[in-house]
């Protein structure tokens, strides 16, 4: 986005504005199933109109968190408030929250239109209002032609859209999406991700999505909470999560990353340097907090931020040399695996701007890797 | 050829054990009663050749079916059987549905045991089980002794030899046929459908009524036919538990055959019963087909 455009359109970052009231507030929430702690003392705020993603491996507690928002589970300790109201005693049918289920949970005995109308009928709205709303929802997901079909007579992608329309029909304050695209094939999933974002923007509803697919979370979300073992490890925008992961778990979970272990030798001024191998130049990366000298630390750097060259590069902060161990040709780019000092393996990615036959780098060759001092982050945990 | 032989096995089975007996019964129903062995006429005399066949054919008539419409015993017995079968089917459903529902709600590790308990009665003879109800329901039976014992009643309740005893007998005997198909339908039900219904504003009860119940409908229909069809022609239960006033077509059939030795009229009664039962059997088949289709 250009600077001019930035000035015109205020950036959507309510979590940075202390005057904003969060729509959802988890306060020291713990949920236990018998001996198993699914959610461990969790505190988080989610704001109106956010597209908030809960990301983590299976069993990390993300689904439990969502089910607590829907009212299907109650917290063992702590409180959840939605729009200032404490939710602990409110059953699912009394919440202005709707959920799109992973299995879609469409009623097999009802037509597409009746599925969408189901929630509206429970509110005892007049018939003409229900019909108008159903029509509106069908247009939103472009399924007008299929209104009278039964769920088993439409495709998986269409079912997914019916489920979305049904959960949006009551215009909830908050929509929960449980792995909404899990059952779709890759191409359809990508299209649907953009569709979801469009719908979220047009309806202005707050979306909370649960997913284990990091690409999906990166694509759709305004903020991502990375979860592990019932705790939120980091909450940030997709870009921050990717570029400046808060710890090794996040760095490793999201995308591909090189982890170079060493000891801190210099710290301050938003940067830190580590010494990682004898006779090698120290490596510098971002570190917002001061780290005491001698602390064990890891430099995390993404392969695409590492430049590979045959000659020693001039005027760069971080440079190291090694031999090419492996080359993976991916079409638009190649990934090189380089063995550096101490047997440390480092991946570097380069776009294939030339034809493969003209490529200068080959196996067993001595090469140089370099990156800027803002490309990587120094992590201590 | 091998395949043809394999396919023909069920057809031969049906031909030998269903179609041929049915044709014999149909033939007898068109005959006249006679004091002879067998106790009906005409009988086919192949030795006379073509003339014999013609004579045999000429001896057949619809007299017995006409008789069924003239004596009001028969249509009253059909109607009464129909009434008893319908009422007992409804009663079995009312008892069976909660049992099936409870089974699907039970913890997983209990289900095989509960299923066993439903099937277990089949391991004992049907006749003995019905007979033992006499000991429970009679005036000096366990039920009356218990009720008088706890001081709830002073005079014994007259249950045995009334229609009430017949209803109890039918509900007891056919309960598994109702429970099992409903259980099968309810077990297939996806739990998240109920959560979705609640999420969209249903209370627990309306979620049951709008989702669980319609989705178990085919189990209900299947179970109801499985109870209704045999209950309609039931003989043992009304004979053992029912009274002189209990009128059921199965009993009439038995009496025509063995007490009156009127095989032709008894056969006519059987043929009409079969024709009446074809309607629910066809409906049952259609329901099964629909179920298969929806399951795809």
N-to-C span of chain A = 34 Å
Arrangement of strands in the largest sheet of chain A: 6-7-8-3-9-10
Structural class of chain A: alpha+beta
Rg calc of chain A: 25 Å
CATH topology call of the largest domain in chain A: Rossmann fold
Question: Would you tell me the overall average pLDDT of chain A?
Answer: 89
Q: State the separation between the terminal residues of chain B, measured CA to CA.
A: 32 Å
The count of strands of chain B amounts to 2
What's the multimeric state? heterodimer
Question: How much of the sequence of chain B is in beta strands?
Answer: under 5%
What is the N-to-C succession of helices and strands of chain B?
A: HEEHHHHHHHHHHHHH
Radius of gyration of chain B, whole Å: 24 Å
Helix content of chain A: 10-25%
Name of the CATH first level of chain B: Mainly Alpha
Spans of at least 5 consecutive residues with low confidence of chain B: none
- The gross shape of chain B turns out to be globular
Biggest interface, which chains? A-B, 25 and 20 residues
Number of separate domains of chain B: 1
Work out the helix count of chain B.
14
Arithmetic mean of pLDDT of chain B: 91
CATH superfamily caption of the largest domain in chain A:
P-loop containing nucleotide triphosphate hydrolases
Explain how this protein is built.
The complex is a heterodimer of chains A (381) and B (296). Chain A is an alpha+beta fold and 381 residues long. Chain A has 2 domains: 12-248, Rossmann fold, CATH 3.40.50.300; 256-379, Beta Barrel (OB fold (Dihydrolipoamide Acetyltransferase, E2P)), CATH 2.40.50.100. Chain A contains 9 helices and 20 strands. Chain A has helices at 3-8, 62-70, 112-122, 127-140, 156-168, 186-203, 214-220, 238-243, 248-253, and strands at 24-33, 36-46, 51-55, 77-82, 85-86, 97-100, 174-178, 206-211, 223-228, 231-236, 258-268, 271-275, 283-286, 296-301, 307-309, 318-329, 333-339, 345-351, 366-371, 377-379. Chain A has a 6-stranded mixed β-sheet, with helices on both faces. A 5-stranded antiparallel β-sheet of chain A has the order 13-12-11-14-20. In chain A, a hairpin with a 2-residue loop joins strand 9 and strand 10 (231-236). The mean pLDDT of chain A is 89. Chain B has 296 residues and is mostly helical. Chain B is built from 14 helices and 2 strands. The longest helix of chain B is centred in the first third of the chain and has 34 residues, at 72-105. Chain B is globular, with a radius of gyration of 24 Å. Chain B starts with a helix and ends with a helix. The chains are: A alpha+beta (381), B mainly alpha (296).
């Amino acid at each position: 986005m250009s600077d001019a455009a930035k000035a015109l359109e205020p950036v959507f970052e309510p979590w940075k504005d202390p005057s904003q009231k969060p729509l959802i507030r988890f306060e020291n929430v713990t949920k236990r199933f018998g001996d198993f702690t699914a959610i461990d003392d969790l505190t988080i705020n989610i704001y109106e109109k956010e597209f908030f993603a809960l990301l983590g491996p299976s069993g990390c507690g993300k689904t439990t968190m969502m089910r607590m928002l829907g009212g299907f589970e109650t917290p063992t300790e702590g409180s959840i408030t939605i729009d200032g109201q404490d939710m602990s005693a409110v059953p699912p049918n009394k919440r202005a929250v709707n959920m799109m289920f992973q299995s879609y949970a469409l009623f097999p005995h009802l037509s597409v239109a009746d599925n969408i109308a189901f929630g509206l009928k429970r509110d005892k709205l007049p018939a003409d209002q229900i019909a108008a709303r159903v029509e509106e929802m069908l247009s939103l997901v472009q399924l007008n032609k299929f209104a009278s079909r039964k769920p088993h007579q439409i495709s998986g992608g269409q079912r997914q859209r019916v489920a979305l329309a049904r959960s949006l029909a009551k215009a909830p304050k908050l929509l929960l999406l449980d792995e909404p695209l899990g059952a779709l094939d890759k191409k359809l999933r990508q299209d649907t991700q953009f569709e979801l974002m469009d719908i979220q923007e047009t309806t202005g509803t707050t979306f909370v999505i649960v997913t284990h697919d990091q690409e999906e979370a990166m694509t759709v979300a305004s903020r991502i909470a990375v979860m592990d073992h019932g705790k939120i490890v980091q909450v940030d925008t997709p870009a921050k999560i990717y570029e400046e992961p808060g710890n090794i778990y996040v760095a490793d979970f999201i995308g591909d990353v090189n982890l170079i272990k060493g000891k801190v030798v210099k710290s301050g001024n938003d940067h830190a340097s580590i010494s990682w191998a004898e006779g090698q130049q120290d490596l510098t990366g971002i570190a917002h907090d001061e780290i005491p000298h001698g602390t064990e630390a890891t430099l995390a750097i993404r392969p695409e931020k590492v430049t590979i060259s045959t000659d020693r590069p001039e005027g760069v902060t971080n440079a190291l040399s090694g031999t090419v161990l492996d080359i993976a040709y991916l079409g638009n780019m190649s990934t090189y695996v380089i063995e550096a000092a101490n047997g440390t393996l480092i991946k570097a990615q380069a776009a294939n701007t030339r034809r493969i036959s003209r490529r200068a780098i080959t196996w067993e060759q001595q090469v140089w890797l370099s990156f800027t001092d803002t490309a990587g982050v120094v992590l201590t945990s | 050829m091998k395949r043809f032989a394999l396919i023909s096995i069920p057809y031969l089975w049906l031909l030998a054990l269903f179609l041929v007996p049915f044709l014999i019964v149909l033939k007898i129903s068109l005959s006249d009663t006679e004091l002879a062995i067998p106790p009906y006429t005409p009988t086919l005399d192949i030795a006379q050749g073509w003339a014999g066949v013609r004579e045999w054919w000429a001896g057949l008539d619809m007299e017995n079916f006409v008789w069924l419409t003239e004596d009001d015993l028969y249509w009253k017995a059909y109607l009464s059987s129909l009434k008893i079968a319908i009422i007992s089917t409804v009663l079995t459903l009312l008892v069976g549905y909660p049992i099936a529902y409870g089974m699907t709600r039970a913890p997983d590790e209990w289900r095989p045991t509960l299923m066993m308990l439903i099937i277990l009665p089949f391991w004992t003879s049907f006749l003995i089980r019905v007979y033992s109800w006499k000991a429970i329901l009679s005036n000096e039976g366990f039920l009356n002794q218990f009720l008088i014992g706890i001081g709830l009643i002073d005079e014994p309740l007259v249950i045995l030899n009334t229609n009430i005893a017949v209803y109890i007998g039918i509900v007891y005997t056919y309960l598994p046929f109702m429970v099992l198909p409903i259980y099968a339908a309810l077990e297939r039900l996806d739990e998240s459908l109920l959560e979705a219904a609640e999420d969209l504003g249903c209370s627990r009860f309306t979620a049951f009524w709008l989702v669980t119940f319609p989705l178990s409908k085919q189990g209900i229909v299947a179970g109801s036919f499985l109870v209704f069809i045999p209950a309609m022609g039931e003989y043992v239960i009304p004979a053992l538990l029912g009274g002189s006033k209990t009128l059921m077509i199965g009993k009439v059939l038995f009496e025509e055959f063995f007490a009156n030795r009127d095989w032709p009229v008894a056969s006519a009664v059987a043929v009409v019963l079969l024709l009446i039962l074809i309607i629910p059997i066809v409906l049952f088949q259609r329901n099964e087909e629909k179920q298969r289709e929806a399951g795809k």
